[in-house]
Each structure stands twice: as structure tokens, then as C-alpha cells.
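[agent] plan:
  1. take the single chain provided in the ticket
  2. run structure prediction with default settings
  3. attach C-alpha cells to the ticket
  4. add a short note for the reviewer (M.T.)
[agent] executing step 1
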Amino acid sequence: MSRFTIAACQVCAGDDRDANLATAGRLVREAADRGADVVCLPEMWPFVGRDADKIAGAETLDGPSMTAMKTLAQGLGIWLFPGSFAEIAPVPGRVYNCSPCIGPDGAVRAVYRKIHLFDIDMATGPTFQESATVAPGDRAVVAETPFGKFGMTVCYDLRFPALYQALRDAGADVVLVPAAFTATTGKAHWEVLLRARAIEQQVWVVAADQGGRHNPVRVSHGHSMVVDPWGFVVGRCSDGVGVTTAVVDPALTADVRERLPCAEHRRPFEAPGSA
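[agent] step 2 finished; step 3 output follows
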């Protein structure tokens, strides 16, 4: 595996699907113009708005949003991880939070459906119940590319390190985190968690976040970033719309894992109360 350039695109989606698609397309093209071989978009970039409208506008992998992304990937000759979108699910009234991987031929190479759903009620912050409208996935996914293996996660998955360990065990060199992290939790936890997952599993972590005010009641943190396996932030956006790029060097990954072989030091243990 050789060095390659990866980009995280940061958008602030609203309820105008055409405008969201135009912004996403512009940023993906900008990333490709800057030399990115792999480009990532945030969680739910095609639409942020009323739950009822999200469900009514749910698509398939052959729907308009992903068809546009397939065309874009093929036209630019890039590997594209187009964040996630609301996918039609077999459960009435609910969708999947679906995250695909698209190759430079325009074909879907892998599909991950978000496992951990964001259900919180914060006294001084936002209230979300993602499980009311989203059906959970049940399978960890690693996408195979010429640049290595990419572990696929979405947003709230970031708080569950066991998933990241499973992806590393499956051979992941890079883990992707498309997100729409809230401004409240993002200020306190976003960078800390991204760097922790990178350090723990000795992987590159690439996090494309939504950034800005979507509507009067919803604001996303932004600060999309790329973190190397030693935990250093090597690419970052600030607020609003933008693109950050970084060079992923597999030699650094190998060096970190050789100098600090944490995976080899794991030992089995009994859980408390199991005796």
C-alpha cells in the first residue's frame, strides 16, 4: 500500500435537497482538484429537516442522491465515501442511516448501516431520539480498496470503542466517521474521542462532520479532521463549509504499531462477577 491523499468535506445541510446536492458536489470536486484519491462526506448530507420529511424522502442505493455520487466518483476517478443518507428500510416508519463506499468505476463496493443510535435527553442541550425514525444496522463493515482497508462507522458509533477494535481486528488501516455531531457534545467530546479511537487502535481516523446551523433548533459542531495513528491532528476544518486534506502514510501506521504493539499485548480476562 502506498501513500495517498484523503479529504473530508464539511457541509451544513438543510431541507433543500437540490441545494445540498449542489454543495456536496462542489466540495467533492474541490477535493479531487486538490489531489484527493479518497473523498468523504458527512452523515445525512442529502437532507436535514423534519423527521416526517426525512422518512418520506428516503431513497435506495439507486436513488437520486447516490446515483449522483456514483456519477461523480466515476467522472473524477476517485474512491468516494458519500457520508450517509436515509435509506428505505423494511420497518414501517423508519429508515436506515446508510453509509456506502463507491469505487472509481461508480460501483457500490460496501454498505454500512449505522449500528448505535443517538437517543439522548440533555437538560441543557438538545434532545434526540434517532431510534424513533431509524432502524439499527447489525454488522460491522470494512471496505477493501487499493489504499488499504477502511473501517466504516457513523457519528454516535464513535462512543463505542469495541466497534473500532473489531474493525482493527478485521484489518482496518483507516476508520471513517461521517457525522452530524451536535454543537453541545462536539465542543466537549468530538476531538477527544476521535484522537482516542486513533490512539487505541493505531489507525488513521477521518471524520467528516456537518458544521453550522441547519435550522432554528439544530446546530452541528463541524471541525472535520484527520487524525494519524499516533493521535496527531494532521488536517482540520473550522466552522461552516469547507474541505480538509491529508496524506495517509502507511509507513507511519507500521512504525506506530511496531514501536507500541498494543494489539499483541491484549490478554483475556474474566469479567467482574463471572467467577
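[agent] step 4 note for reviewer: The first strand starts at residue 4 and ends at 10.
[agent] ticket updated
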